[in-house]
Amino acid sequence: MSKKKTDKKKKNTSLRLDETTLKALKMRALETDSSVQAIIEQLVDDYLANRIKLKKKR
């Protein structure tokens, strides 16, 4: 499947992260030969599939 076909179904959203967190995320993406987009997308998919749980705020 071409990149254009997969991107066609995706929608944009905004995400605000702490500067330190974003820098660390970008570094991890480089280290793993990935992208911030791919990491966030995988995390959301895992959360929605109940493969990861969020910690409850106190």
Structure write-up:
This protein is mostly helical. It has one domain (18-58). The protein has three helices and no strands. The chain is globular. 0% of the residues are buried.
Describe the secondary structure blueprint for this structure:
Layout: H1 3-8, H2 19-31, H3 36-48
> C-alpha Rg, in Å?
14 Å
Contiguous low-pLDDT stretches (5 residues minimum) are: none
Distance between the termini: 45 Å
| Count of separate structural domains | 1
Largest sheet: none
Number of strands: 0
The proportion of strand residues reads under 5%
User: Helicity level, as a percent range?
Assistant: 55-70%
Mean pLDDT across all residues, rounded?
Answer: 90
Q: Given the C-alpha coordinates, what overall shape results? A: globular
Which H/E pattern describes the elements?
HHH
Structural class: mainly alpha
With helices defined by DSSP (H or I, 4 residues minimum), what is the helix count? 3
Protein name: Ribbon-helix-helix protein CopG domain-containing protein
InterPro entries: Arc_rbn_hlx_hlx, CopG, Ribbon_hlx_hlx
Domain Ribbon-helix-helix protein CopG: 11-50
Summary, kept brief:
The chain is mainly α and 58 residues long.
